[in-house]
Amino acid sequence: MLQTFIILTLLVLLVDALGWVRFLWFISIGYGASIAAIAIALGVMHYDTLSLPSALLILLAVIYGFRLAGYLLIRELRSANYRKTISYDAMQGSDYPLVASVSIWLSCVLLYLCQMTPVIVRVEQEAERLQPPSGLPFFGGGGGGLVWAGIAIAALGLLTEALADQQKSAAKKLAPQRFVDTGLYRIVRCPNYFGEVIFWTGILVSGLGTMDAWWQWLMALTGYVAIVYIMFSGARRLELRQDHNYGEDPEYQAYKQSTPILLPFVPIYSVKRHKWLRG
User: Fold this and answer.
1) Helix pair 2-15, 29-45: axis angle to 10 deg
2) Distance set, CA 188 to CA 141, 164, 179, 227, 243 (Å)
3) CA–CA distance from 83 to each of 16, 50, 93 (Å)?
4) CA 194/CA 177 separation, integer angstroms
5) Helix (H) or strand (E) holding 38
6) Closest by CA position to 140, among listed 156, 123, 155, 153
7) How many Å apart are CA 114 and CA 223, to the nearest integer?
8) Do 218 and 113 contact (CB within 8 A), yes or no?
9) Angle at Cα 227 formed by Cα 43 and Cα 187, nearest 5°?
10) Backbone phi, then psi, for 68, in 5-degree steps?
11) What single string gives the DSSP state of each residue in 131-198?
12) Rounded distance, CA 7 to CA 5, Å?
């Protein structure tokens, strides 16, 4: 298992080096591409011992990673409004001290590996335990119903995030200068971030029956807590930006005061006062 983690670390270091082209890509396009790369590498290395649940988890991670990276790249290339929301400094890695850039790069690599730890451990355990009779996926793997529950939750999160991004793009085409409050945005102000939380909740749940070492739990929980924190941090940045853009709009104020910011049906309407939510 250690050898696999070393290989994956080197791979993610290479893929997330996209951030040296544009600093923001360490945590955007490089993020999606890194998750997809980890999943593909696991599938290639252990294709002959994958259970059906593991194969599905890998497939979900590949779709998740490529969809996210592709969506962010297309939005950056096509949307003038999106480019305006990103400061010049955030776009240019050369504007950051070398030590800061290296620190962000290495931190991102560790985070992405931690997030995928439940899947990595499952696939590795299957490879160590099984003698593949045919090279075909089988209906098995540790975790029983937990892995299938995790797959269902992750699939729901992927669908939610993709639908939210599509609905926002469509709404912005019709009214570029207006906030989005249609579709999933009627239920929660950041449904794309909520979908992200659901997806990684599913990945964590899928590994509950397989992780059996303290360091595995430490990595998996660190990755999960970190991504939830990042989503709340992203929600805070969005709230600050929307307050700046639409703060004088009575419709926006009514929408903000009646629609939860990140978790549907949970009455948390604002997080901007929580300055510790920075990332």
Assistant:
1) 140
2) 36, 10, 13, 18, 16
3) 21, 41, 16
4) 23
5) helix 29-45
6) 123
7) 5
8) no
9) 110
10) -65, -50
11) --SSSS-BS--TTTHHHHHHHHHHHHHHHHHHHHHHHHHHHHHH-TTS---SGGGGT-S-HHHHHHHH
12) 5
Write out the two tokens for 43.
């599938």
Amino acid sitting at position 81: N
- Other Cβ atoms less than 10 A from the Cβ of 100: the count is 11
CA–CA dist 222, 113 (Å, integer): 10
In contact, 202 and 150? CB cutoff 8 Å: yes
Instruction: Describe the crossing of helices 2-15 and 117-129 by its angle, rounded to 10 degrees.
Output: 140
Amino acid (one-letter) located at 210: T
The residue among 199, 170, 195 whose CA lies nearest residue 183 is 170
Q: Is 51 helix (H, G, I), strand (E, B) or coil?
A: strand
Tokens of 37: 């790369």
Which element (helix H / strand E) includes 1?
none
User: Residue 62 carries which side chain, given as an amino acid letter?
Assistant: V
At which residue do the structure tokens 């059996």 appear?
A: 212
The total number of residues written for the chain in this structure: 279
- Residue closest to 207 by CA, chosen among 191, 223, 192: 223
Q: What is the pLDDT along the chain (279 residues), one digit of tens a residue?
A: 788 999 999 999 999 999 888 888 889 999 999 999 999 999 999 988 899 999 999 999 999 999 999 998 888 887 655 555 555 435 444 456 788 889 999 999 999 999 999 999 999 998 887 644 444 444 445 557 899 999 999 999 999 999 999 999 999 989 988 999 999 999 999 999 999 999 999 999 999 988 989 999 999 999 999 999 999 999 999 999 999 999 889 999 999 999 999 999 999 999 989 888 875
- Structure tokens, 263: 């978790």
